[in-house]
Amino acid sequence: MASLHPSTTADAGVGAVFAALADPTRRHLVEALAARPGTTATALAAGLPISRQAVAKHLKQLDEAGLVSRRRRGREAQFALETEPLAEAVAWIGAVGAEWDESLGRLRGALGSS
Amino acid sequence: MASLHPSTTADAGVGAVFAALADPTRRHLVEALAARPGTTATALAAGLPISRQAVAKHLKQLDEAGLVSRRRRGREAQFALETEPLAEAVAWIGAVGAEWDESLGRLRGALGSS
User: A28 — contact with chain B (CB < 8 Å)?
Assistant: First the structure.
């Protein structure tokens, strides 16, 4: 069970992505930014039953997990999705799935089925 | 921004999966169970710097998120991975990525590039 040891930096990154996506409001923000790149916190808050300040706090957490980027355009920052951390999360899940498939293959082999 | 509204049940399920995978110990347990289906809490704890009791608590959280199944075999329960919730998490991320690609395509079209 060699992999059962303290997290690497890359592993911690994936953890931050999963933690960010665990919250329903943050998942809604990710979906909204996927559909409308360059949206402001004010515009994002307009579609939600929470304050602009609460949205800004969630955006900060998404930013810390690497899931959004911001750039200032006039008075208010515009946000966009960063897909690389999503790809890393999918890669982690994919590796687990591949390992699982391999384990099942070994078990089938040991049971003598083809 | 039609999708920015309270979570559906399916959405909550994906949230539970992301929350379960946010913790490094639980990710290690998922990796260990992918590699060795049918492992007991005692065997899982042997490879980790935490107690069997702590491992059992994490396994309970994975169970609640639908990520593991347990079956009793003799004195101690054996755990196995359940991959369906992982597939749902990948599907959610994939839908976000597809939406993002489509948005970028529209922006490129609006800018007149081919």
Answer: yes
CA distances from A69 to A33, A72, A80, B83 (A): 10, 10, 5, 32
**Is residue B113 very low, low, confident or very high in pLDDT (cuts 50, 70, 90)?**
low
Mean pLDDT computed over every residue of chain A: 89
Listed range (A32-41, A42-51, B3-12) with the worst mean pLDDT = B3-12
Asked whether the beta carbons of B71 and B39 are under 8 A apart, the reply is no
Say what the alpha-carbon torsion angle B86, A66, A32, B17 is, to the nearest 10 degrees. 20
Per-residue confidence band for A1, with pLDDT thresholds at 50, 70 and 90: very low
Over residues A47-77, the pLDDT tens digits come to: 899 999 999 999 999 999 999 999 988 889 9
Min Cα separation B90/chain A (Å): 6
> Identity (one letter) of the amino acid at A40?
T
Instruction: Identify the CA nearest to B64 among candidates B113, B12, B28, B108.
Output: B12
**Which of A15, A32, A103 shows the shortest C-beta gap to B24?**
A15
Q: How many CB atoms lie within 10 A of CB B113?
A: 7
Element (H, E) at B38: none
C-alpha distances out from residue B85 to A11, A94, B82, Å:
20, 13, 7
Residue A6 with chain B: CB contacts under 8 Å: 24
CB contact under 8 A, A100 and B81: yes
Whether the pLDDT of residue B114 is over 70: the answer is no
Residue of A nearest to B13 (CA): A22
